[in-house]
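Ops channel
N.P.: pipeline sanity check, posting one input/output pair.
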């Protein structure tokens, strides 16, 4: 329960523009960005996306 409260406070702050962007999974980050865009909340800088591996090299 406590973890949920902490996460909710962080996300609420991001939704309202009171806090800068925190690192979330990609779907949560996109939903926050969409909410901010639709509601005219000042764009907060989003965390950089992690590098994605496209192929594996033999060991």
């Amino acid at each position: 329960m406590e973890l949920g409260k902490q996460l909710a406070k962080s996300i609420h702050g991001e939704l309202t523009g009171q806090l800068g962007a925190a690192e979330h999974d990609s779907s949560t980050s996109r939903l926050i960005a969409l909410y901010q865009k639709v509601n005219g909340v000042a764009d907060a800088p989003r965390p950089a996306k992690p590098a994605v591996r496209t192929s594996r090299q033999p060991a």
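N.P.: looks fine end to end. The longest helix spans residues 2-16.
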